[in-house]
């Protein structure tokens, strides 16, 4: 199988069904790839996929790695370094997240316009790699042209979307009501335990990024709502077809 992907996708919790849309697949379990961590979270299949989506060669991570699993930031983001070495130019990232914006509801698709890094360790901490910027610019972490393309496709297909700022936190606990409230006061619309480290490293590699969150639970309001990982997966699964439709068309037009 000969493939030359320029586009990569990272699929988050409950979002692995998009992988079934990929044709002409070559699947490689993470445990067969040298130096790759292994995903330990329910809902993450743990395999690298090469194939076609939207008529384009793509590379997809069906399941990601998280800081809360005990991996270092360098291990969490190692796959993005591999993508860069393989010639990836555009990265699509997805996640399940909790919403703090009162305009949001469970099942909403939120296009990420910016992020807040609230992790205790930075993925670029340490000696800088030769040939990379020591202080990479992050004024456009999420590509404005890709966001505009997503908005256009969503409008064409009558798929409602939200826009917002994603805050990445360590986890693995879900947030307390006042943590939700604090994150919203800081300027975030949704919170999750991934994505930000991968995006930082992608931009360090000069890879363009498009990010999307599925709002799987809500917090920070007057009445606290209990949440479980199973409920998060269920909400993500229900919203995934619309997210897949937008991403597939974006890849087709990229």
Automatic annotation (TrEMBL):
GO MF annotations in UniProt: purine-nucleoside phosphorylase activity
Pathway linked to the protein: Purine metabolism; purine nucleoside salvage
Protein name stated in the entry: purine-nucleoside phosphorylase
Source domain of life: Bacteria
Family in the record: Belongs to the PNP/MTAP phosphorylase family.
Record domain Nucleoside phosphorylase: where: 6-252
NCBIfam families recorded: PNPH, PNPH-PUNA-XAPA, PRK08202.1
One Pfam family, short name: PNP_UDP_1
EC number(s) stated in the UniProt entry for this protein: 2.4.2.1
Transmembrane segments: none
Native organism: Segatella cerevisiae
Keywords carried by this UniProt record: Glycosyltransferase, Transferase
Keyword Iron-sulfur in record: no
């Amino acid at each position: 199988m000969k493939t030359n992907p320029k586009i990569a996708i990272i699929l988050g919790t409950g979002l692995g069904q998009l992988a079934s849309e990929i044709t002409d697949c070559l699947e490689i379990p993470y445990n067969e790839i040298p130096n790759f961590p292994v995903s330990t979270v329910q809902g993450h299949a743990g395999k690298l996929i090469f194939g076609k989506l939207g008529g384009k060669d793509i590379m997809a991570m069906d399941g990601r790695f998280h800081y809360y699993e005990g991996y270092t930031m360098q291990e969490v983001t190692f796959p993005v370094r591999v993508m860069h070495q393989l010639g990836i130019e555009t990265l699509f990232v997805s996640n399940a997240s909790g919403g703090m914006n009162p305009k949001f509801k469970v099942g909403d698709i939120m296009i990420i316009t910016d992020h807040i890094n609230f992790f205790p360790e930075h993925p670029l901490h340490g000696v800088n790699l030769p040939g990379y910027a020591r202080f990479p610019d992050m004024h456009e972490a999420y590509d404005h042209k890709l966001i505009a393309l997503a908005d256009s496709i969503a409008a064409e297909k009558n798929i409602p979307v939200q826009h917002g700022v994603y805050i990445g936190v360590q986890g693995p606990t879900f947030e307390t009501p006042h943590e939700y409230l604090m994150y919203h006061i800081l300027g975030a619309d949704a919170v999750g335990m991934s994505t930000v480290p991968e995006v930082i490293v992608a931009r360090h590699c000069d890879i363009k990024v498009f990010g999307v969150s599925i709002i799987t639970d809500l917090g920070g309001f007057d009445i606290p709502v209990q949440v479980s990982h199973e409920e998060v997966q269920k909400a993500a699964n229900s919203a995934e077809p619309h997210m897949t439709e937008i991403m597939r068309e974006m890849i087709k037009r990229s």
